[in-house]
Design a protein that fits this description.
By secondary structure, the chain is α/β, with parallel strands linked by helices. 26% of the residues lie in helices and 24% in strands. The chain has a ten-stranded mixed β-sheet with strand order 4-3-5-2-6-7-1-12-10-11, sandwiched between helices. The protein has a six-stranded parallel β-sheet with strand order 13-18-17-14-16-15, sandwiched between helices. Strands 28-27-26-29-30 form a five-stranded antiparallel β-sheet. The radius of gyration is 29 Å and the shape is globular. The N and C termini lie far apart (68 Å).
Length: 613
């Protein structure tokens, strides 16, 4: 008999049906670990009238997804060498991506839908196993639908795996992605609040921490991937820490049913095993035979083993609901992997009150808010909400806040909101509708949307004054060739009458015009003491407008901030609202230096102020 779906599972199914009735665009469903993705897959397969292929990257997921569908009383094939079955003769086929990609001839047929579990593993590489399968199936059915399911919809190197988030009405990625839209997402916190997952208890102060941060290159912010040799070097110097850490884990697990320990390397894992009680501990590493690995996993699931140590092999496709302690002894720059690790302990189980998470690697991730999808630009950055003054979308960017939690500065470039594309002229629309009627295609189409045009950081085109992304090389409005900042600096450095400041800061002060009128003096400071200054008056509306366009638009830390430009005194009180440029270029005009160009958000080969050479 069909299983009764939880409300959010039914919503995910409904969102899928609605989307694919209107579009062929590849879509993603985001459900936390333990939310029951396999039941959503089973229901979609049950409702399907044509052939469906369900892909996963490990045999455990293939088997799990197949068993949930079999619970409906329907027959389905399994095509996975790891499960010793290679059949593809039923309407629904559950296969491993490795086996299917090596046996494409067995899938020379018209499939209507491909469902990919753990779809964050799908890349755009045309030669990848997933893309090879999709291309093969599209040769038989160009309208093939592709649906992905994941708990972690981002990749370490490229960010979000889709471009648009339909429920949030937001753009997440402007680069090419394997999937076009996210059509449904259930937050992890909501799952816990609704008692579908186990609450998390994260311990604040472990007895010792590994200093993996010393492996980060000097001055480097964002993702980095230390080598195994470097990690082992840090761990070798922390043997006392490891012994103390394991002693604490054993103590904390005294009233726990099952603990999973995630080690950094195989050498580290074996060291950990030496400190654990041998009668109730086991180790799993990648080069174990499948028989030995399955034997250990089965013993752990049967609670014959209390501590299971592993190295990067049990982060997905592993289901042991009794796990109520997770110990992280490895660094990871990936918030997705961090979520997957902790997700091993979030499933419900009789008598289980919570899952204790002990992180000894100092991983900086927020389990409940991995919403930025990009590396931190600053170690002090936190996730902040920034409303758009144009479309009112609440953007989520990295930013800096003060001691009261108020926003100081954010690093967002452009509003992420989606807005409806302006309607076409009436005559053109009528002609299109007439053609659709004649062709029998007059079906309701989803509204076309595009990203909001408002930019918080931008490069202004000198030809049309259009605003472009700070990395743009060609104006998106008039196709004017924009000056490369490296070429701009190189040209200025070669001029005798030019001065280039590697700006380390700026200051506001009051000055007087030739007629004695108060003026705002903005002084830009070089790290070696050189200076350039520019002056602004506020006597007329035209002067105040010039100050906004020539200064505020680029210098404001938060472009939607209201600024009082009535007087110089008012500006002096608001100097904290503005940011300094990275470089300032001045040109000599008779006996004076005049600021000609300012470069913000610089990314190039020249060193920034106060940065190591």
């Amino acid at each position: 008999m069909p299983v009764t779906l939880r409300p959010y599972q039914q919503q995910a199914v409904d969102a899928t049906l609605s989307h694919f009735r209107a579009s062929d665009e590849a879509a993603v469903i985001v459900l936390p670990t333990g939310a029951g993705k396999s039941l959503v897959i089973a229901e979609l397969a049950r409702l399907a009238k044509r052939r469906i292929l369900v892909l996963a990257h490990v045999k455990e997921l293939v088997e799990q997804n197949h068993s949930k569908y079999a619970n409906y009383g329907f027959k389905a094939s399994i095509f996975a060498a790891g499960l010793k079955q290679k059949d593809a003769d039923t309407q629904v086929v559950f296969g491993s991506v490795q086996s299917v990609s090596r046996n494409l001839a067995a899938f020379d047929d018209h499939f209507s839908l491909v469902i990919i579990d753990e779809c964050h593993r799908v890349s755009l590489d045309a030669d990848s196993q997933y893309q090879t399968i999709i291309s093969h199936l599209k040769s038989f059915n160009p309208q093939l639908k592709v649906l992905g399911l994941t708990a972690t919809p981002y990749r370490l190197e490229s960010g979000w795996i889709y471009q648009q988030h339909i429920p949030q009405n937001a753009v997440k990625n402007t680069e090419a992605c394997a999937f076009k839209v996210c059509i449904f997402e259930l937050p992890l916190r909501q799952m816990i609040n609704d008692h579908f997952l186990t609450p998390v208890t994260q311990q604040d102060a472990p007895v010792a921490l590994y200093d993996f941060e010393q492996l980060r290159p000097s001055g480097h912010q964002g993702y980095f991937q230390p080598s195994e040799a470097d990690v082992n070097r840090v761990l070798k110097g922390a043997k006392r820490a490891t012994k103390r850490i394991i002693a604490q884990i054993v103590d904390q697990a005294s009233d726990r049913k099952g603990g999973m320990i995630f080690a950094a390397t195989v050498t580290h894992a074996r060291e950990i095993m030496g400190y654990l009680p041998s009668d109730c501990s086991a180790l799993i590493v990648g080069d174990m035979s499948l028989r030995a690995r399955d034997s250990v996993i089965n013993a752990f699931k049967a609670q014959q083993i209390k501590f299971l140590v592993n190295v990067s092999v049990l982060t997905t496709g592993f289901d042991a609901p009794h796990v109520d302690l997770i110990a992280i002894l490895r660094p990871t720059e990936s918030v997705g992997l961090y979520q997957q690790i902790i997700g091993r302990g979030l499933r419900l189980s009789p008598g289980k009150q919570d899952c204790l998470v002990l992180d000894y690697a100092g991983n900086p991730h927020d389990l409940f808010r991995p919403e930025i999808g990009q590396a931190k630009p600053d170690s002090n950055a936190v996730a902040v909400d920034v409303p758009c003054p144009v479309c009112q979308h609440r953007n989520q960017f990295w930013g800096l806040v003060d001691s009261d939690g108020d926003l100081v500065e954010h690093y967002g470039r452009r509003c992420q909101g989606l807005v409806v594309v302006s309607a076409q002229p009436e005559l053109e629309l009528e002609l299109e509708q007439k053609q659709e009627l004649e062709q029998g295609k007059n079906q309701q189409q989803p509204q076309k949307k595009q990203q909001c045009d408002f930019r918080y950081r931008f490069k202004e085109c000198p030809n049309c004054n259009g605003e472009n992304d700070i990395a743009a090389r060609v104006c998106s409005h008039c196709e004017y060739l924009l000056v490369d900042p490296d070429n701009q600096l190189k040209a200025a450095l070669q001029l005798r009458d030019a001065k280039v400041l590697r700006c380390s800061g700026m200051s506001f002060s009051q000055a007087k015009s030739a007629k004695g009128q108060p003026r705002l003096k903005v002084t830009y400071h070089d790290e070696e003491g050189a200076e350039l200054a520019e002056y602004f008056g506020f006597d007329t509306a035209a002067q105040r407008g010039a100050f906004y366009h020539q200064f505020c638009k680029q210098h404001l830390k938060d472009r939607q901030q209201n600024v009082n430009t009535d007087t110089v005194d008012a500006l002096l009180q608001q100097s904290h609202l503005f940011r300094a440029p990275d470089f300032v270029i001045g040109r000599q005009q008779k006996r004076y230096w005049v600021v000609r160009e300012k470069i913000f958000d610089y990314q190039g080969r020249y060193r920034l102020a106060n940065a190591l050479a």
